[in-house]
Amino acid sequence: MKSTRGFTLVEVILAITIIATGLMVLTNSWSGTFNRLRKTQVQVQMAALLERKIVEIEREYKGKPLDSIPETKEDTFGSDLPEYSWKMTSQKLELPDISPILAAQSEGGTALDLVSMMKMFTEHLNKSIREVKIEVIYKDIRKPISIDIVIYMIDYDRPLPMPGAS
């Protein structure tokens, strides 16, 4: 009788195939996890930079006239974060004039007073509010990633154009 010690060639090839398959599955899993982790880190960094930029812009223009806010402004976050940049765009807020709707629904002198007051108030709000969009951009290898937020800067000191109002 012949003693069978050791492995046959088929068993060795089968074992190597199983090990190689397992290593491929683990490598793909780790690679996907690493990519998700990297993407999450970038998104957290972008959110923190966006929050920081909002505070800086609010502080820079607080107490100043809304006309001093530029229509566009952009820059980087310095040499510490060269792959991140920011952009700010601003515009006057344009509320729709609903006075024609009110005029069509009403009849009489008091309604006309309400229409003129509403028109005056809409014009006042259009001059007192500025829409500011702040965007943070990450220059990725494949394509840039960006997040943005819109804030409204309000001039609370602008007097109401109504007699007797403060």
Tell me what the structure shows:
By secondary structure, the chain is α+β, with helices and mostly antiparallel strands. It has one domain. Helices cover 48% and strands 20% of the residues. The protein contains three helices and four strands. It has helices spanning 9-61, 99-105, 109-128, and strands spanning 72-76, 84-92, 129-138, 145-154. Helix 2 (99-105) runs antiparallel to helix 3 (109-128). The longest helix has 53 residues, at 9-61.
Reported for the largest beta sheet, the result is: 4 strands, antiparallel
Following the backbone from N to C, one meets helices and strands in this order, namely: HEEHHEE
Number of helices: 3
Q: Whole-number radius of gyration? A: 31 Å
Q: Looking across the biggest beta sheet, what order are the strands in?
A: 1-2-3-4
Intertermini distance: 112 Å
Averaged pLDDT, please?
A: 85
Q: Bin the strand percentage.
A: 15-25%
Low-confidence segments, given as residue ranges, are: none
By secondary-structure content and strand pairing, the structural class works out as alpha+beta
Overall geometric form: elongated
Number of domains: 1
